[in-house]
């Protein structure tokens, strides 16, 4: 891998690793704890020969994460974003998508390997869940999405509309959706060439065209 690719890989997988830690807590993860999680993950990467060109940068990030008052997550974001509004690959775009949702809906996207089991054990279920046993395995070596990500949404109609509006701005993904007992299920995958030919509905149309209980409708965003 080139230096640029190694930096991109380090940043993407570090941020994804941090996202996955939400599976193990119902509480907001404070900055200090986020730094600890990222530093521990980066320490494993700095030992790998795959990232020898980025070794110095990884060590710098580890040092930043150990300093009081620093937000390592923001440093890693800046390492790749550099004021760009979009990502360079599906993994980056997925991360930015989740952050957009959390910031615009003032909620936390959570992760689980099983919707029903997690819901039964959760005292206050989150409004948005993404289900997968290992998010890292959903992306290939080029950081492109290779698997379907299943979402469960238990939110108000107004929030659903905002959510669909956000999804519609990420044209690299396509989404199918269904309803069951009031819950909205989303099935997100990489947008294929044939998907781009379909007319993109407005967010409001997406909401009112949601399939009735136990049926499914396809929408390309």
From TrEMBL:
It comes from the Bacteria. It holds the Pfam family DUF2913. This is DUF2913 domain-containing protein. It comes from Vibrio halioticoli NBRC 102217.
């Amino acid at each position: 891998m080139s230096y640029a690719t190694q930096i991109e890989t380090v940043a993407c997988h570090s941020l994804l690793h941090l996202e996955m830690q939400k599976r193990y807590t119902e509480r907001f993860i404070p900055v200090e704890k986020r730094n600890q999680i990222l530093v521990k993950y980066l320490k494993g990467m700095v030992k790998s020969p795959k990232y020898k060109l980025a070794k110095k940068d990884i060590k710098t990030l580890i040092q930043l994460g150990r300093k009081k008052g620093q937000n390592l997550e923001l440093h890693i974001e800046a390492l790749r974003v550099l004021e760009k509004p979009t990502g360079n690959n599906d993994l980056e775009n997925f991360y930015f998508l989740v952050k957009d949702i959390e910031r615009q809906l003032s909620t936390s996207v959570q992760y689980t390997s099983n919707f029903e089991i997690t819901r039964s054990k959760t005292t206050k279920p989150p409004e948005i869940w993404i289900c997968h046993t290992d998010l890292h395995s959903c992306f290939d070596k080029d950081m492109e999405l290779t698997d379907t990500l299943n979402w469960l949404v238990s939110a108000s109609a107004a929030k659903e509309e905002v959510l669909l509006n956000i999804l519609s701005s990420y044209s690299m993904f396509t989404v199918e959706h269904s309803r069951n007992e009031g819950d909205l299920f989303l099935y997100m995958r990489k947008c294929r060439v044939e998907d781009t030919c379909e007319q993109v509905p407005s967010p409001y149309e997406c909401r009112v065209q949601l399939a009735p209980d136990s049926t499914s409708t396809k929408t390309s965003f």
